[in-house]
Amino acid sequence: MNTLQGKNILLGITGSIAAYKGADLTRRLREQGANVRVVMTRSATGFITPLTLQALSGQPVHTELMDLDAEAAMGHIELSRWADAIAIAPASADFIARQTAGRADDLLTAICLACQSRIVVAPAMNQHMWANPATQDNVSVLKDRGIQIVGPDQGSQACGDTGPGRMADPDRIVVSIGQLFESGLLSGKQILVSAGPTREPLDPVRYISNRSSGKMGFAIAEAAIEAGAAVTLVTGPVHLETPARVDRIRVETASQMYKVVLDKAASCDIFISAAAVADYRPGLNAVSKIKKGPDELQIKLVRTNDILSAVATLASAPFTVGFAAETDNLLDYARGKMQRKNLDMIVANQVGPSAGFDRDDNELDILWSNGHVHINKNSKKSLARDLVKIISGRIHADDTTENTG
């Protein structure tokens, strides 16, 4: 199972003789379908040139904390938001110490401090440096913070010593990075996700629609796959690549999405309605193109079927999650929608010129009957994984209640 396809992996290379292995690791990550960007510490450039890593990754290599070519010269923030995961390989004793202390005096440590994604660290150093209590204490602190340590391996070292301290084999590191995306939280569950806008035709060339890009729904489908679920994704007209192992069904209108979702909902465990379905459609779809005429043109609109309510009121309804995209009164409107439509959970997000639609990041408020979680601004992929964790927690809580009730 390839869990790295399409993932954004930031590879950090620090000052160790094992830095040359970063070239092989970059190549192997790309062979698995990952997008790779490389960040090097200044000392790492003494062991392997940035040009080598740029050629292998297909992306510019980053070395400076204040990058004038980056967004607002804040490259560490830009890169931390981009990364689905960070791998530090090799990680020197000095870098591990600075990471443990929360330093941010170079680009790589600043990224680690700013990033909310998962981190893998592959130590590489002399065996005595590795065995030193200071290093062991630092590694224990990183483990306690949820950072995965891979290696080091035993073997001969550049200094002539033999023992633990060699950087783990690149294949092993690739496997460890892939395992970051395999939570198993929803193993055996059938999940139905809707995504994107609908188009409601006025005539053969015009339609009513909205600005939804479908990115959040696609991110949720991918996160559900990582959690071990079987996923069906019903999408309006968007130009996004189908996540690996997702069964995608394409529709265009609200009516078509209603039919497909209702057909699939009865056999799913969870329905996540991330689609921005049109609330109204033109009452008449003209057979021929409507010609320019008077200064005003009146078009009668009629309500579309409410997909979310229809699923939530099924006799054997799945765990139903709705979305509320609002320009104001976010939490009040979201709670009202959740109660009115009898939803198990609702995800509220602000939309407007600088938030919501057609962006790669967002922030969310997730509400259920007796709970509320706010998730700060992050990539939609990261938000989707957080949402899947919360849904899993609610489902397992409900299962426990039923079994003990």
Going across the biggest sheet, name each strand in turn: 12-11-8-13-16-17-18-19
Q: What's the CATH H-level superfamily name of the largest domain?
A: CoaB-like
- Can you identify the CATH class of the largest domain? Alpha Beta
Instruction: Give the biggest sheet.
Output: 8 strands, mixed
- Number of structural domains: 2
Question: How are the SSEs ordered, and which strands pair?
Answer:
Layout: E1 8-13, H1 21-31, E2 35-40, H2 50-57, H3 75-82, E3 85-91, H4 93-100, H5 107-114, E4 118-123, H6 127-131, H7 133-144, E5 148-149, E6 153-156, E7 162-166, H8 170-179, E8 190-195, E9 200-201, E10 207-208, H9 215-226, E11 230-235, E12 246-250, H10 254-265, E13 270-273, E14 280-282, E15 301-303, H11 307-312, E16 319-326, H12 330-340, E17 345-350, E18 361-368, E19 371-379, H13 380-404
Parallel strand pairs: 1-2, 1-3, 3-4, 4-5, 8-11, 8-13, 11-12, 13-16, 16-17
Antiparallel strand pairs: 6-7, 9-10, 14-15, 17-18, 18-19
Helix pairs in contact: 1-2, 1-8, 3-5, 4-7, 9-13
